[in-house]
Amino acid sequence: MTQIDPTTMWIVIIGLAIGSFALRFVFIGFVGDRAMPPWLLRHLRYTAVAIIPALIAPLVVWPTATEGQPDMPRMAAAAVALSVGVLTKNVIAAILTGAATLYGLLYLLA
Amino acid sequence: MVYTTDKSFFWKGFRDGAPFVLVAIPFGTLFGVFATEAGLSVVQTLAFSATVFAGAAQFTALQLLQDNTPTAIVLASALAVNLRVAMYSASLTPFLGAAPMWQRACAAYLTVDQSYACSIMQFEKEPEMSVPQRMAYFFGSVTPITPLWILATYLGAVLGARIPESWALDFALPITFLAMIGPMMRTLAHVIAALVAIVVALLTVSVPFNLGLLIAGAAGMVAGAQAERMLERKSP
């Protein structure tokens, strides 16, 4: 893993602290009781479900640890974590079964 | 049970928010471990968790920093991941917008998945609650998590340095995020948004500076919003 330069790290921490607060404050602080356009709310509703899968998909298909070679245990663990999450709506159960799949297969295939 | 005083609403919020500790502790610990692996000091890790207070954005920033992404792109991507808190802020505004400014500022800092989810359910269930009662409930719901989130980060940071590479922690982040995505798939529109985002992310993986993430995220949001409109028109 690449070591992160401390100055860059502090810039990111401070920038994210200010930015995250601004995102949380913008409506409750500035908008007050005024209504917001429905088209904006409609797009905001899908931010998390779009950005998070977009971040994860390349890491699952081309994992860093295997230098970008597709890896069966990691793919299987990803599939299990996602499926258990969808079926049970339980984040902790999904993490545990995903991790168990990864370690189980890494052990069996070693 | 009847809740009349602000204080009893605080404790009702506290009880409703308490189960989320089971998510916040492992997730905070994981962040501490991951941050230490990435080379952050304990002070940096703690400052990160305490000031940003948004696990998903923190993980995103660290992942991109490790890929040598330019700082501006790191900030834009992590804030894009956190755009949902703006959505929460917007959704809570009709209920809490009339409170004093200092309370709204504190509430803004404490707007996270857990406090939002508890509060919006409670406010819609009991519309006759006064604004001070709603604020008391909101602060109650987030009180169990906040100190434990920071403490768990600290424990993870201290323990993280001792975890050997053979534990395959590189994959802790994808598993955690995938686990979080599952419960978010509430409607067909959410599923479409996620699928479009995944396909575009895989197609744009060679775009420099990890800009593919923002392109894919935007594509997913538009797809979700359009799907929602089409499904609304179809349903009676």
Give the secondary structure arrangement, pairings included.
The complex is a heterodimer of chains A (110) and B (236).
Chain A: H1 6-31, H2 38-44, H3 47-61, H4 72-88, H5 91-109
Helix pairs in contact in A: 4-5
Chain B: H1 6-17, H2 21-37, H3 42-52, H4 55-66, H5 71-81, H6 83-96, H7 101-109, H8 113-125, H9 131-142, H10 145-160, H11 172-184, H12 188-203, H13 211-234
Tell me briefly what this model is:
The complex is a heterodimer of chains A (110) and B (236). Chain A has 110 residues and is mainly α. Chain A is built from 5 helices and no strands.
Give a structural overview:
The complex is a heterodimer of chains A (110) and B (236). Chain A contains 5 helices and no strands. By secondary structure, chain A is an all-alpha fold. Chain A has a domain of 75 residues. The radius of gyration of chain A is 19 Å and the shape is extended. The model of chain A has no long low-confidence stretch (mean pLDDT 87). Chain B folds into 2 domains: 166 residues, no CATH class; 52 residues. Chain B is globular. Chain B has 236 residues and is mostly helical. The two termini of chain B are 39 Å apart. At the A-B interface, α1, α2, α3, α4 and α5 of A face α2, α3, α4, α5 and α6 of B.
The chain-level structural class of chain B is mainly alpha
Largest sheet of chain A: none
Q: What spatial form of chain A do the alpha-carbon principal axes imply? A: extended
The N- to C-terminal Cα distance of chain A equals 23 Å
Alpha-beta classification of chain A: mainly alpha
Radius of gyration of chain B: 19 Å
List keywords for this structure.
heterodimer, A: 110 residues, mainly alpha, 5 helices, B: 236 residues, 2 domains, globular
